Amino acid sequence: MTEPLEQPPGAARRERAGDEELSELQLAQTLIALHREQQAPRAVREQVESRLQGEGLQRSGRAAWARRLDALMAQIAGWSGAGVVAVVALLLLTWQHQQAGEARESRATELGPSALAEPDAIVSGVVVPGSLQWRMSGDEIGMGRCEASFLLRHGDAAHDEPMHVSWTRCDLPDELSEELRRPFSPVRGAPPLSLEARGRWARENELDALSLRLLP
Amino acid sequence: MVTDFPTVELLGAGADATAFEADDRVREMVVRNLDAVWRTACRLGLRGADPDDLAQEVALVVMKRKAAIEPGKERAFMLATAARIAANWRRSGRRRSRQGAELALALAGGLEADAAAPPSPERELVRARGLALLDAALKEMTESQRVAFVLFELEELSAKEIAEQLGVPEAAVVSRVRRAREEFQRFCKHYQRGLR
User: Is A2 within 8 Å of B170 when comparing Cβ atoms?
Assistant: First the structure.
């Protein structure tokens, strides 16, 4: 059985305390009060709030889309009443149906947070064996960070230079990982591994991939 | 180029991407308890920019684990998280060394704290000395005692809350607080006698 603790320290003994003990209690209480008055510096508060704001801005594209849609629906409802809402809802249902169909087609082979951002480049080619460079870091609270980069040789004969593809997630398709780690040559007897990368150009010939899809 | 990582990367496999959103609840939670987290980091021995960094780490943990934080236990969760991270940093040698001069200054100087006094350089100096004195007292404790004392006495969490958040029996928390109080009172007594 746990005997309850009193809070603050020594409070119950205050009445019977002599001058000396009262003085010590006063010191203890003063120190505790000083602690409770202490505030984080304004700069820290601003940094944290800014960080929170930044993370909020990085919400998934779908979530952002949903919020915009909610706002739009509310606005439309305010403007024109139920008739317009019904028409818009019908259009959206049709559009969502199309989107769901597309998602079903690609879900089996596509990896990566493709919904996070709109890619502005789609490239395909053959991965260069042994070109994988992999960096990982982690902190004490289990938040791992990864960055992989590898070379992708264009299917287009006009491009001699393979392009650099960066991938900032901690997972890679198994087949891709195996192929990229192979030091000299493709897996014997297997066809070259082709993939399609969607992402953004970081600089010329260097793509930050948002999704990777193995091509048959 | 390991700087800006997609939000989803910090989530476990299969996690919902929206779990990392800094929504209104998270913002309110973090902003409301930021001071307590920061000063707890100071009391647990972090120095320099470490309390600032720890405040940010705690905010990230709150964003990541928000679904697991029970309503009404936000403050306890954040302070216990701060204690855990501070302990990890100390173990990994991240903590910067205590400045001996700061401690000496605190012990040598008088303490006439008056909470009602308006801010002034003198008042700030006394405040800084008082806090350094408090830190010196905390340094007399073991780490587990210090964590229990800071969370219970200084931040007024209940023993039950601390036990829940740290995953230890409540009796252990009570025992640690008792021993920490003895150390604290002994320190205050010695300090007062030294002034006379």
Answer: yes
